[in-house]
Amino acid sequence: MKAEFYILGALHRGDFHPYEIRRRLNNAFVECYTDVDVGTLYYAVRQLVKSGDIIPKTRQKVTRGGERTIYRITSQGRKRFQQLLLKRFQEEGPVAQTIYPALLFLDLADLPAVAELLRERLRQTESAMAKTRAIKRQLGAGLGSGNSHLMDHLIQVRRLDGRLLRRLLGEIKTLKIRAPQPTAIKRLGSLSTGAKQRS
Predict the structure, then answer these.
(1) Residue 33 belongs to a domain with what CATH number?
(2) Are residues 100 and 33 in contact, defined by beta-carbon separation less than 8 angstroms?
(3) Rounded mean pLDDT of the chain?
(4) Residue 152, helix vs strand vs coil
(5) What's the number of domains the chain is made of?
(6) Which of 121, 159, 179, 183 is deepest in the core (most CB within 10 A)?
(7) Which residues, 6+ apart, have CB-to-CB distance to 122 below 8 Å?
(8) Helical H runs in 13-141?
(9) What pLDDT digit, counting tens, does each position of 8-49 carry?
(10) Of 7, 4, 5, 21, whose CA–CA distance to 99 is shortest?
(11) DSSP codes of every residue in 109-145
(12) Which residue range is the domain that position 114 belongs to?
């Protein structure tokens, strides 16, 4: 369940109700790089309570007369989140589909373990890029225009992925990983709302 990863990650940063978790995920533009439906968060929250990964902390009155439950992550939930976070770095596939969600929570990760996984991903990315280049050279004009453009694009994507992976490794090595600042998250939220209204 992808939603559990985002819920547990958000609750690492504070105690929230599902609406606030959803708002934070929307502010982080998760819909741009994952197919998780933030509407399924309420179901996922109930499942995480059942499994003992999160617990209700308090209830908060809302203006319409109802109540919201605020949840807290448990120590079991923290361990589960670390497993899910490392799993994201291990997944095969393009960086945008696998590592992007994990980058939201990079400051919470076991950095030495992440560095090892990133080194392996970088090796795989460079190997895939070299193979694609070799095939393109070998087949040359026989590829046709469409296939040639496709291979050029794959090479460019893998080059970009490699650049990101090297930069991440450099920041981890020099211990320059920072947590997001609450004021920046709020500002990002207002910017994302403005962008959605203009589109």
Answers:
(1) 1.10.10.10
(2) yes
(3) 85
(4) helix
(5) 1
(6) 121
(7) 162, 165, 166, 169
(8) 18-27, 41-51, 75-90, 95-98, 100-103, 111-139
(9) 998 998 999 988 888 877 777 666 566 666 567 888 999 999
(10) 5
(11) S-HHHHHHHHHHHHHHHHHHHHHHHHHHHHHGGGGHH
(12) 2-198
